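sanity check this chain:
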Amino acid sequence: MNLWFIPGLILLGLAPIAPSKDFSAETQWKLLGSTLRILDSKRDPVATGVIVGRKWNLQEGPVKTYYVLTAFHIFREAPNRIVLLAQWFPRKIFPIARFEDFHCYIRVKDESADLALLEFKSTEDLPVAKLAKFEDYDVRADRERYPVLSIGCSLGKSPSCVADETLGKKLVMKSRSKENPENYPVAFFWEARKTSVKGRSGGPLFDSSERLIGISTAVQGGKSYYSHLDEINSFLKKNDFGWLLEK
């Protein structure tokens, strides 16, 4: 694609990348490569996911196993082995893009942190997002405002980027109910300035070092919330997927 054509697409609202001084067009294209659109059994788009790991076994030849991080609430009523469909857009051609279909299975999920890990197999050599580890992350980010990039499938369309800013780390409390008369802590989430839209649930949140630090989960009061990297790290480690953090 000619470079002069990209700014024109941005102005027309056709390109999946966002104007940003913190995330170059090249970086955004790179991060888009690990993002998937998730569909249900009727092929209706329902959410977004991001590839966070790959495993290859010599006995399986060219077939690789991929792991996708997304939001739990999408599968609240689903059995653990539900078959889903994920679409990957590998080319920088918008709005027309070639895509591949992959049948996914839910491996593990966590309601409190609103996280789920999917698995699928493919012979494709797919991009993998780099996960942030809490021991390597600057704790000041929990209190200060930092530029971030969210990626998601707005209204079920192909993935697109939104440049945003974190407003800090928040402890979300579960509301009172007949079963639980008292509020109690659930999990930590990033609060971000811009409002997300339907279809972006499960989409990744990246920092300026191209590390995945959150997963889109909810919107409240005009702001977006993302599962915090602490919760992602804990979720993977307690379910024996901590090795995904070491790649």
Observations:
- Residues 4 and 10 are 11 Å apart (CA to CA).
- The chain has a mean pLDDT of 82.
- The two ends are 31 Å apart (CA to CA).
